[in-house]
Design a protein that fits this description.
The protein is of the alpha+beta class and 318 residues long. It has six helices and 17 strands.
Length: 318
C-alpha cells in the first residue's frame, strides 16, 4: 500500500523591524501557523529555508528587510508494508478483530513511524481483509490509543462493521474502561471531569482544556487503591477525545504517572510513558446485534509497579 499527496509549497515572507534578532525557526513558526516548530526546524535542517538565495540554519537571526523563503517539499509516497508480528489477538471473526496493543507500539503509520505499527502487523495477519474507509494508511482503524498506552483496540475488517462501530463511538455507547496510576492521593472515592478538550492554543502537539474551541469531554473515575503519593484508578470514557484521560486527570491535579507531556518531567520510577491501560472494551456486534465485552489483563510492568507501591517503594530509583 502507498499513501502520499501532491502538495508542494513555496512561502515567502519579509522580516520587519519587530523581527530584529529573532531566530529564523521562531520567525517562520510565527508566520506559518499551520506548521509546528519542530516541523519548521526539520525543514530548516533539510535545507529548505533561505534568506535571499542563501540556505540558512535554525540559529540564523533575521534582520529587518530579510526576504525569507521556506520550501515545503512535495509529500513523498509512504509505502505501507505488511510485517509479521506476534500480535495478541483477544477476539476475531469475519467482521472485527480485537488486539491487546503493547506499550511503545504506534497504531498506524505516519512519517517517522512508517514501520512496526499495529497496521503493519494487521496487514500481514489479515491481508486485504480490512475496511478501507480510513484509507491506505489507517485500514480498519476506527479508534486509536496512544503509543505508550496499552490495551484493547477494536479493528474493523469491512466497511459495514466500520460504519457500525463508528456510529457507536459517535453515540458514546461503546464501553471503554481504563486503568491508570495517578500522582497524588485522591480523597473522594469517585468523580467526574466534564471539561471540553481541544488543541492546545500554542503547542500543536498537546491537547488542553479548551472552553472556546474544544469538544465536550467526560471522564468518570473511581478509586481502586490508594498508595499515599499515588492512586490507582479506573476511568470510564463517556466521550473519546485525544489524550482525554491524560488531560482531564492533569486538570484536577492528578496527572497520570509517567506522563511527561501533562505531568511532571521527572518520574520517580523508570517508566516508558504514561501508566495507562485500556482494560475493558464492550460493543454491540455489527452483524449479530449481540453485546460483547472483552478484558485485557494489566501488563506486567503495570502490575509490577502496583506490587512495588504496595510494598511502599515510592522513592526515586537509583
Amino acid at each position: 500500500m502507498t499513501a502520499g499527496g501532491d502538495t508542494d509549497f513555496i512561502r515567502e515572507f519579509a522580516a520587519c523591524d519587530e523581527d530584529q534578532g529573532a531566530r529564523i525557526d521562531v520567525f517562520l513558526t510565527g508566520r506559518c501557523s499551520d506548521l509546528s516548530r519542530s516541523h519548521v526546524q526539520r525543514l530548516i535542517k533539510d535545507g529548505n529555508a533561505l534568506v535571499g538565495q542563501k540556505v540558512v540554519k535554525a540559529n540564523y537571526k533575521v534582520s529587518p528587510g530579510d526576504q525569507v523563503t521556506i520550501r515545503i517539499p512535495k509529500a513523498r509516497q509512504m509505502e505501507i508494508l505488511p510485517e509479521p508480528m506476534d500480535l495478541e489477538i483477544v477476539y476475531e471473526d469475519e467482521d472485527v478483530i480485537l488486539v491487546n496493543k503493547p506499550k511503545g507500539m504506534v497504531v498506524h503509520p505516519a512519517f517517522g513511524h512508517e514501520g512496526g505499527t499495529l497496521v503493519n502487523g494487521l496487514l500481514h495477519h489479515c491481508g486485504d481483509g480490512l475496511s478501507g474507509i480510513n484509507g491506505v494508511v489507517r485500514p480498519g482503524i476506527v479508534h486509536r490509543i496512544d503509543m505508550d498506552t496499552t490495551g484493547i483496540l477494536i479493528v474493523c475488517k469491512n466497511d459495514m462493521a466500520h460504519n457500525a462501530i463508528a456510529e457507536q463511538l459517535k453515540d458514546h455507547t461503546i464501553v471503554r474502561r481504563y486503568q491508570a496510576i495517578v500522582h497524588g492521593g485522591i480523597k473522594e472515592d469517585e468523580g467526574t471531569v466534564d471539561a471540553p478538550v481541544g488543541r492546545h492554543p500554542t503547542d500543536r502537539k498537546r491537547m488542553s482544556i479548551n472552553e472556546k474551541s474544544g469538544r465536550r469531554a467526560v471522564t468518570h473515575y473511581r478509586v481502586l487503591e490508594r498508595f499515599g503519593q499515588f492512586t490507582w484508578i479506573e476511568c470510564r470514557l463517556e466521550t473519546g477525545r485525544t489524550h482525554q484521560i491524560r488531560v482531564h486527570m492533569a486538570s484536577i491535579g492528578h496527572p497520570v504517572l509517567g506522563d511527561e507531556v501533562y505531568g511532571p518531567k521527572k518520574c520517580p520510577f523508570k517508566l516508558q510513558g504514561q501508566t495507562l491501560h485500556a482494560g475493558i472494551l464492550g460493543f454491540v456486534h455489527p452483524r449479530t446485534g449481540a453485546y460483547m465485552e472483552f478484558e485485557a489483563e494489566l501488563p506486567q510492568y503495570f502490575q509490577g509497579l502496583l506490587d512495588r507501591l504496595r510494598g511502599g517503594v515510592q522513592k526515586r530509583e537509583g
